[in-house]
Amino acid sequence: MTSSDDLLYLIRTTPEVDLLLRSSFGFDIHRKHYGEGFRLASGVPLEVIAGESAGGAYFLCAERSPAGGVRELRRGGRSARR
Length: 82
Prior knowledge:
Elements: H1 3-13, H2 15-25, E1 47-51, E2 57-60, E3 72-75, E4 78-81
Antiparallel strand pairs: 1-2, 3-4
Helix pairs in contact: 1-2
């Protein structure tokens, strides 16, 4: 599990944190139906992690590994490059 997974789990399982993020920043983790197939110019995929109150979305972007490469994640039984 990555630190972003831990943070997203905390948001999903703590109603007070979820409410604070929705009311203060429009960050709604329960509304992440924005589309698929978004990628950075480098080709690394972006993952929609939350909807935004004006209709936009929040994305989980790529992280570099200490060696300078792109880290890979396993999400929902499939591998996603980060």
